[in-house]
Amino acid sequence: MSSVAQKKGFGATLWDWLTTVDHKKIGILYFLGGGFFFVVGGIEAMLIRWQLHKPNNDFVSAGLFNDLITMHGTTMIFLAAMPILFGFMNAIVPLQIGARDVAFPFINSLGFWMFFFGGLFLNLSWFFQQVPDAGWTSYASLSIASEGHGVDFYAIGLQIAGGGTLMAGINFLVTIINMRAPGMTYMRMPLFTWTTFVASAMILFAFPPLTVGLFFLTFDRMFGGNFFDHTMGGNTIIWEHIFWIFGHPEVYILILPAFGIFSEIFSTFSRKRLFGYPSMVFATVLIGFLGFMVWAHHMFTVGLGPTANAIFAVATMAIAVPTGVKIFNWLLTMWGGSIRITTPMLYALGFIPSFVMGGVTGVMQGAAPLDYQLHDTYFIVAHFHYVIVGGVVLGILAATHYWWPKMFGTMLNEALGKVTFWFFFIGFHLTFLIQHWLGFWGMPRRVWTFMDGQGWNSANFISTIGAFLMAIGIIVLVYNVIVTSVKNVKVANDPWGDGRTLEWAIESPPIYYNFPATPLVRGLDTVWIEKMEGNETGLTPAEPIKDIHMPNGSIIPLLMSLGLFIAGFGAMYRTEESWGLPVLIFGLLWTFVAMAARSLQDDTGYYIKKDEILRDLKRKGGQK
Amino acid sequence: MADVQVYKRTPAEQQLAQRRSKKAMRDQVMMFSLMIFLTLISFSMVVAHEAGVAGFSKYLIIPMVMLFAAVQVGLQLYYFMHMSEKGHGIPQMFMYTGALLGFLIPLTFVTIVWW
């Protein structure tokens, strides 16, 4: 095994990517997979907005509109936002804690392939002309009544993808607990690592309820179960509870890593230590915990009774406190800092007002009596797009520009990055700000068209214009990516010049074993500390250079996930096609055989020899 | 292969380690006998109830047995699975968080779904 870059054929390169267990490559795979689904979900959003740009439009049928809104929500949450964040976590967190890989590289790969095949399964519904149409929440009475296989695609596709997410979450927990470099105590971890840690803990507790709920739904629809059928003694409200016990933590699982990304960006480009670091950590943990205590605020109008509504309303508003702590800490990080307005910093600056607006409307809906007025109107649509686009998507775009050099070794064009920002930012506010008023004016969400003369025409038209501005922003970003990839101007370790955390002390992209010697961490922002003390490399090694143990790549994760993908089709067609049951059994057997192959195989990895590491160091110009 | 390091204990360290492992062994045996004792009480209470001994009603025995069971789970975790030793803070935090959620969510269901 040599680290010298050799020219490889297409087949060998492809095989390398399919079998990789390297966290940096899996990060890129997550990023590309999530990016693909982000474009798919974005196209769906464009079609939705085009349908609504004028009254009585018949651009799409009512049924297709239901398909579009369901798939837009499901794709964006499960297949775009989460995987892209996982991409950054994979690519960056092991570097930030000074580790050579995640704790379970094989499971990391398995998590990615399960996400990929789950997403593929869900989106193949378009080719079968039977698309999920019960909304991304898929409330039980509606999803049980939905004809065709649409909701089956939803239940099985998310089950497979959700399994992958759970594995990824557990993997990050173990990695962050066990694999921090010497000296990196919990209170010296960069904020992105902290938010990844808390988000992973939330995944650990939030995804099992989703798994249970999806199994109930699968059994009700495909195997004659009656969990949600009240005529058979079931309870349809149970789905709503189970879904939101998962679903509310899920939105914090999305936003916390974005908070981490912005924390890194604010302190890097203000050239200051993050203000109130301990309170930031505390607020992150508190948000993570409170996130589990508020799910019923999605269900105020179900009729839980005033006591339950009051308890959940108070719990909901309590979350505004730690979130406020974070906002003030970011503002005070910039206070007195030597600020550089780079593209990531521009996103961070845009994020604060946008996210605060989404947070304030969230507290408005947290007030149960007002929620009776706002429920199921465009106000809700405006609110959650303000927190998810204004928070998570701005975070993802910021991180794309910020960590692009670390992931791909070349800088995105700053001028084009700023063009992307302004198109996206203005488009975003144009699309969603007006929707608050549409909600007040009584426009219900999830309607496929509306009548003329209700005063909604111009507002909807403005909203559609905004959506297209966002699309232009993303197209500029894609152009930027293509141009910079073709030019491929290599950058040094710390292209921003102000890097504070460990990832900026190693080359871009890092060599496959990351650190020739595990670094010694002497405080928060360890690279900054080293640089301030005159250590140009930014690193102090904690050990002499010695042989490094590395895991071997494996095709088995892909095969395991493929088995589940095949079994999914069998489960779906079991009752109507004779091949259904055999395919279901075949798929599951395939997975079990792959698992057995992994268990019986004695793969202990390999060692990179000390000589080879020394040779690499010499070639890089004698970094000691 | 990786560099293998051999470390030799000093006599004082050896003694300390021996003392510690003796104490650990004593604790283990004590807890084991306590658990057997608790199990014995549980069984005899049920036998007494079956035999119709006065005072051993169902409403006394069920909570008692549950209580003993909870104690045994605790002993199991802290002594036999070594949670009382150092370096188990994170697993403890996760277990208690899980237990809290596992308690609160069914409590909510009992009070507002199946009221």
Structure notes:
The complex is a heterodimer of chains A (624) and B (115). In chain A, helix 2 packs antiparallel against helix 16 (457-487) and helix 9 (277-290) runs antiparallel to helix 11 (320-334). Chain A is built from 20 helices and two strands. By secondary structure, chain A is mostly helical. Chain B has two domains: 11-84, no CATH class; 86-115. Chain B is built from three helices and no strands. The interface between A and B is medium-sized, with 20 and 17 residues.
Instruction: Write the element-wise H/E pattern of chain A from the N-terminal end onward.
Output: HHHHHHHHHHHHHHHHHEHHEH
Mean pLDDT of chain A: 94
Shape of chain A: globular
CATH architectural group of chain A:
Up-down Bundle
How much β-strand is present in the residues of chain B? under 5%
Radius of gyration of chain B: 22 Å
> Which pair of chains has the greatest number of interface residues, and how are they split between the two chains?
A-B, 20 and 17 residues
Helix proportion of residues of chain B, in percent? over 70%
Rg of chain A computed from alpha carbons, rounded to a whole number of angstroms: 25 Å
CATH structural fold name of chain A: Cytochrome C Oxidase, Chain A
Number of helices of chain B: 3
Give the tally of structural domains of chain A.
1
Number of DSSP strands of chain B? Answer: 0
Give the SSE layout.
The complex is a heterodimer of chains A (624) and B (115).
Chain A: H1 10-18, H2 23-51, H3 62-96, H4 105-128, H5 140-145, H6 150-178, H7 191-222, H8 237-270, H9 277-290, H10 306-318, H11 320-334, H12 343-366, H13 368-374, H14 378-408, H15 414-440, H16 457-487, H17 526-532, E1 548-550, H18 556-572, H19 580-600, E2 606-608, H20 610-619
Chain B: H1 11-50, H2 58-80, H3 89-113
Helix pairs in contact in B: 1-2
